[in-house]
Known about the structure:
About 35% of the residues lie in helices and about 20% in strands. By secondary structure, the protein is an alpha/beta fold. It has one domain (about 5-205): Collagenase (Catalytic Domain). Helix 2 runs parallel beside helix 6 (about 135-145) and helix 7 crosses helix 8 (about 195-205).
Amino acid sequence: MQVNEVEALFSRGDGTYLFARWGRPIVPVVFGVSEETLSVVKGAVEAVVALAGHKMAETDPELGANLMVFFFTDWAELRAVPRLGEMIPDLDALTHRLEDAGANQYRSFRFEPNGAIKAAFVFVRMDTELAEVPAEVLALNQAAQVILLWSDVAFRAQSPLAKAGDMVVLRPEIGALIRAGYDKTMPAVAQDASHALRLWARIGADAGAEPEAAPQS
């Protein structure tokens, strides 16, 4: 991975550079899945959090849960979820836009005063395409995309995952980048593209690490 590729992963569609990582332990809660799938989703989050060297907790003292993952079949279902509109601004308009676009996933973040990630909401509409994706692969993909504030166009051309024999794993360079982003010497938030050079310098030292595999159900 070259420096310009690292920079592109945190350069938004309007050209601005923005990096952020979680500033508090992650507390996930998952809606709309069976008990078996719930363990797969939480296992994927735990695996990626461990990869990053970050922490999880049983509860967030301010929010209770700070990573909310919703699985459903129609965007209209979200409009009926009690109090969700209090957490997601303009929920009605947003879900109608996503319906019109035929979107099957969306992520929304909330931030600490210093800009670090405070909470995240992950919405996954299980359309025909996603229904064919194994639960462990879908879970790992979402966990990878919520561990950092990636660019809004970061993975349009290429998924953060890759095949490794019979397994699906995080692409090694993405795993290394996640670890670099959580390096204790690195800032929790960055808005200058020179930050990408610092990330890239740390990736080289991590090049030989084993890729993270999708947890098996």
